[in-house]
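Progress narrative, work stream C.
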Amino acid sequence: MSKSLFVFTLASVQPFISQARRLGDLVAGSRLMSDLAGAAARGIQSIGGELIYPPPASLADDTVDGGTPNTLVAQVPAGSEREAGKAAQVFLEQKANQWADRARNELARLGPNLDKVWQAIWERQLGALWETYWAAAPLAKRDYAEVYQETRKALGACKRTRVFSQVEETGPKDTFGGTRAALRTADRDARAYWAAVAKNTTAAQLKPDGRERLDAAGALKRFGGLADRIPSTSTVAAAGFLARTREGNQLAPYRQVLEALLGRHLYRVAKDPDWPYDGDLLYEETLAAARLRASYGVEQVDAGRLSAAVDALRAIYRRVGPPSLYYALIVLDGDGMGQRVEECSNPEEHRALSEKVSWFARSAKDVVKKVGDGARLVYAGGDDVLALAPLATALPLAWELAKAFTEKVGAGATASAGVAMAHHLYPLDATLRAAREAEAMAKRVEGKNAVGVAVLKRSGERLEMASPWAPVRKDWDELRGRLERGELASGFVGDATDVDLLLTISGALEADLRRLLRRHSKLEDKDRGDRLDLAPRLAYWAAELEARRAGSLKPWIELARFVAKGGTM
C-alpha cells in the first residue's frame, strides 16, 4: 500500500503556556497542550496512521503526566490525508472539551449562574484557542529526506497563512494576558463576577475581591483540575533553607504559631511532615497583614499572633540563615535536531531517532530528582525540557539534562539551555520569556552545546551571559564553590571584573588572575598551590569565549558570587 508522510502541529503553544501568573498555571498549560497533542496522535492512529515522531509508546495518557510534543510526524495510507487531519482535529477537540467541561462545572459550582453572556464568551474564546495545521506529501519511492523537507515547508506556508476569523473582545480584559475579555455575566461585570467566585474558594486558587479576572483560557488552567495544589516559585527558591531546617525539625515552633495565626486559611501543597505549606510563608515579608489578606484571604489578622510568628521565623534565620530570594527557570532543547531528521534516509531511521529522543524525555524526571530537593520538572517532550530549580542547583541541573541528552541520543548530539534566575515574586511569564531569550543566546554561540543565563534583579537590573558548557561545569563551578566555602574573598570578584579580561596575549591575563587569586585566597600558604591552577583555566575560558563570539568572562565571575551568596551581588 502506498503511503504519505503526514505532519500535524498544534500551534501557538508557547504563548498559551507562557500566560501564567503562578507555577500552577505554567504546569496546567504545559500539561494541557501535551494532552491535546497526545489526543491528536491517537486520532491519526485511528485511521491507520503509523506514528514516527513521537514513537507510540511515548504518548501522554489521560493522567496528563506525559510529554507529547506539539508537532507529530506519521505515515498514513495514501488518499487518507484529509481523513487523518480531520481525525486528529476531532480527537483533540474531544479532549479539549473534556477539560473545558471540568472547568465549567467547577465554576458553576463556585460562582453565580452561568448565563448566556458567560456562555457566549466561553464558547467564543475556546473555539478560537486551538490553532492546528497539517501537511502531507506522497512517499512513493522518493527520497525520504526530500519528502520530509517538502512537507515541513508546506506546513510552514500553512502556518504563515494564519486563516482566522476576526473576533472583537469587548469589556474589561483578563488579568493574565490582557488581550481577551474576562468572563462575566449579564448582571455582574468581570470584577464582580470573579469576586463572587473567589468567595467560595481559597486565595491559593483565586485572589479575592476580583483582583484576578480570567478569560476562558485562564479559567481552564485554574479550574480544570490540571494542576491542583502546585507549590509556588517561592517554594522552589526556599528549598535550600527548608533543607537546612530538617535536622531537629527546627520549623516546628514557627509552624505551631503560624497555624494558630492562619487557621483554616492555610492550604497544603505537599505531603511533607515537617512543612506541608507553601514556601512563601518562609519569607518574613509574607508576614504582613496586607500580604496575608491578598495571598490567604485573611480578613482580620491577630496582631499578637502575627508578632509571635515573625519572632519565631527570625529565630530560625539566626540559626540557619534566611532563604534565598531567587530561583531559576530552565529551558533546554537539542541542537541541530532538524538537520539530524533531514539526514534520515527512511521512516525507520527517523523512528529510531525519535525513540532515542523519547528515551531522553522519559529520563528527564529522574535527572531532576537526582540533582536535589526543590527542583521541579514542568515538561519534557521530544528534545524540549522546562524545569525549575533552586538557585544553587540550577546550572548543575541544566548541565545534567544536557549530558543526559547526549547519552541517550548518541555521540555528537548536544543540547543547549537557557536559564533565567529571578526573584521569587518576579512575574512568572516574564521569567519564562527571559529563559527563552537566554536559550537564544546559547544557540548563537558558535558550535552551540552551550548555556545562556539571564539574572533578573528585582530592582530591574539584568545580567546576561553565554558560554560553552564545559568551562561552566568545571571552572565556573570551582570558582563558585571557593566563594561559597569562604576559601576566596568576595573582593576577588570586584578586582577581577576591573581587569581587562580580553588581554590574553603573552599570558598577561593569566598572571593577573593568579595575582588576584593569591591576594584574595583565605587558605594557608601550604594549601594554596594546586588551587591557583584556576588562573590558567579562567584565562583559557576568556579566550574561548572571545573565539566563539560568546561574550565576556566578567558576568560569569559576577554570577559566581551572586549564586554563592544565595542571590545577592
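Work stream C, second folded protein:
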Amino acid sequence: MLRRIVLLGLMISSLCLAPSAQAQGPEVQHSDPQWRVSYWNNMTLSGEPVLEETVDHLGGDWGYGSPHPNVDADHFSARWSRFVYLEQDTYFFTITSDDGIRLYIDNRLRMDDWNDHSRRTLTSKVDLGAGHHQIVVEYYENAGIAAAGLYWEPTGGSDTHWQGLYYDNPWLNGPPRVQRADIYLDFDWGYGSPATMIPNDGFSARWGRLVHFDGGRYRFTATSDDGVRVYVDQRLIIDEWHDHPPRTYVKEVDLLPGDHRLMVEYYENGGVAVASLSWAPVPRSSMWQGEYYNNAWLGGSPGFERADAAIDFDWGYGSPEARIPSDGFSARWTRTVPFESGMYRFMTSTDDGVRLWVADHLLIDSWKDQVATLHSDPIYLEGETPIKMQYYENTGVAAARLTWTRVGDEPSPAGVIVVDDSDPCFVRGGLSTAWRAADGGYQGTLTWTRNNNRPRFNYNWARWYPDLQPGRYEVLVYIPEYHATTGNALYWVAHSDGYTLRRVNQAANGGRWVSLGSYRFRGTEEDYLSLADVTYEPYLSRDIAFDATKWVPR
C-alpha cells in the first residue's frame, strides 16, 4: 500500500512538473507562410481595420485603385507583418512606394520614407544573424497612384555577380519565379524569355549588385526593349518605364571612390526582349577645362584651374573655391564635343554675364550684370566642335549653367502626331496676362504660368487637339528643363471611353517625354489632352509648363 502511494505521488509530481520543464526550453518560432495584412480607411493606421487578411506577397501596383473593394482608393493605410527565416548574411532590403512607407526588422526601424511622393525606390544594407526575423512594413496612400513593394537579397559576400530576380508579370509583383546569379547584365532573348517558367511576353526582372568604382565620372549605358530603370546608390539615373523598340539611354554620374550599389528594373511587354547595362569612366578629354580668375575681366593668369564634368553651378553668395573671391570673379570653360549632323539649341543661364562660342561662332553674347537669365540660340553642327564659354560674377548670387538639345530630335515614326505649344491645335484660356513664353522646350519654345490653388476662380487652362484616326494611341507629354517646377501637374485625357486623370511631377522629369498611358480614341474633335494651372500647391509657388504632346499608335 505504501509503495502504491509513493508511485502515485511520483506520477502526480511528474505530471505537475511537465509543463514547467517544457516552459524552460527554447520557444519555437516558425516562418509564416503568408503575410498578415491590415487595412485602414485613413492614413494613420488608427482605429479598427476595415479589412484583415493573409496574402502571398506584399503590396502591389494598384494605379488609381486600392488593394480591395473595402479599401478606399485614396487616403488609406496598411500594415504587413511576417516572420521569415534568414541565413546569416548582409542583405539589401529594397522598398518601393507611392506614397509613404516604413520598414521594421525585429522591431527596429530600418527605412523611413513616410511622406507624400511619386513612385520611388530606396535600398538599405542590413547585417542579420541566422534565425527567424520579424519583418513589418507600414504604408499609406494619400492621392493619385498607389503602389507599395518590398524585396530583399543576400549579398553573399561577393560583388562579382548580379543577383537576378525574374517575375511572371510586367509589374515586379509577388515572389520571383526565378532567382539566379547572372555574371553579365547583357541579354537578348529575342522572342523568348529568360527561363522556362517565365512567359515570353509580359514579364519583368530586377538585378542588384555592389560594384567598386575608382573616383571620377562614369558613363552608364542601358539598352532595353521595353521599359528600364537604373539606380545608383538609390538615385534614379535612367527612367524609361514605357513600351518602346530597342533603344539605348546614356547618363553620366560622378562617383566617389568606393563601393556603390547598382540596381536595374526591367519589363517586357511584347515582341523582342532586350536588357543590358554597362559603364565606363569618362575620359578627361570629355571634361571641361575650367580656368578661374580673381577679377571680373579674365585678366592675367588664372587663380586656379581644374577639370569640370559639367557647367552646372549655383554658388549662391559663395565662390568656386577658397582662392577665388565671392564677388568680382570670372571663369572660362573650353571643350571639344563630337556632334552628329543636325540643328542644336544651346541654352545658358547665368548670374551675371556670359559669352558662348560654338564652332568659333559667338552664339550668345550677354556680357552684363543680370539676375539668373536664360538665353538660347540654335546652330547647325557636324563632327568635332570646339565650345568656349566665358562668365563673370559682379555681386550677389553667382550661377552659371550650359546645356544643349538637338532640335526636333529624331524623325517621328509613321502615324505619330505631335502637337506643340506653338501649333494652332494648342488652345489656351484664362487670364491672358498670366501666360508667359520662354526659350527652351521641345521645339525651342515653351509656354508657362504660375500655379493656382483655387480651382473655382480665375484659373488658366490649355488643350492640345490632335488630328487622329480612330484607334488606340499612347499619349506622351514633353516636360522642358525650365519653368517646370510643379510636382502635381494634373493632365486630363479625353478619349472614347471617357476621361482619365494623370498626375505628373514636372520637377522630376525635365528634358524628357513622360507617358500618360494608352487609350482608344474616336478620331474626332472630342479627342484632346487638357492641363490647368491648378496644382493644389501653395499659391504662386510653382511654375507649370505647357509644351509638346505626342500621340503614338499602339
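Helices lie at 2-23. No further action is required on this item.
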